[in-house]
Amino acid sequence: MKYRGSFRIKAVGPYNFDLSYSFYRRSRFETVDRFADRYFRRPLRIDGWPVLVSIPCGDGCLTESIRVDWAAPEGLPRPADLRHRLMSMLYADFDLGDFYGHKLDPVMKRLTRRFIGFRPMLTPDIFEASAWAIIGQQVNLQFAYRLKSRLVSRIDRSFIVDGETYYLFPTAADIASLDYADLREMRFSGRKAEYLIDLARLVAAGDLDLERLKEMEYDRALERLLSIRGLGPWSANYILLRGTGHRDAFPFGDSGINHAVTRLYGLSEKPDIDYLTELSRAWRPYRSLATFYLWKSL
DNA sequence: GGCCAGGGCATCT
DNA sequence: AGATGCCATGGC
Question: Is the CB of A143 under 7 A from strand C?
């Protein structure tokens, strides 16, 4: 039985993994993603079993392909379909040329040249992306990471590879089993505790099929998410950005986007919805990519 | 110390 | 419909 292996991912169009690596390496309170020794490490849950994937940071240049190492704790089945999962997670299945070649305004065009090869990484679990959206609402990011850290510690889904402990993000069923008071102790607000636990219970009960969102058109997927209490325009779009990998999501109201647009487009005050709607029209149907490039500029 | 942070909802005019 | 208040906490 083999418990580790290595393979290469070939992206459609250019890839500079270092740009992604540096983009996501943001907080020392991050507990699921790991950035150390010039490796990005990420625990995945495949058919319910933990697998660790490790991706070496490159030399800062565009690469033809990306090496992915994987390791599973001994005694577990060999993970299936890893390549497919990684293609999606690393955004390698998207042809960046489609975005670069799209008719973009000069500011966005300049960003694509500045960060050529930059691709976002998806959160490989849509529920995790959804939970993170709720956790990140209206609090500074450092605090959001601490909330997540407390949650991940409390529901300990850790496993060990090479003597190092890695933490999977809790499942919907895990969080569904908590009480609001448990989250309040972790310094969630009362509202946030309700949003997160209620969402987890919806998913755990099978009343919300997050995987199915992937196959839905952007508008319909957005509508479905907006119908859930606690998910507004920002959160719903965030889930479609980082979770399902929809290409045309745009998180209206995002403070980072507001800052980036204000600076890059020389505004005197933060843009309103109408301005952003009009501005982002030229980025369609790739507003997700535009969003990540704006964030990257900060 | 005050402002604000990768918002959203309930409650008003 | 559109504006306003509120939530809770901590980083800066």
Answer: yes
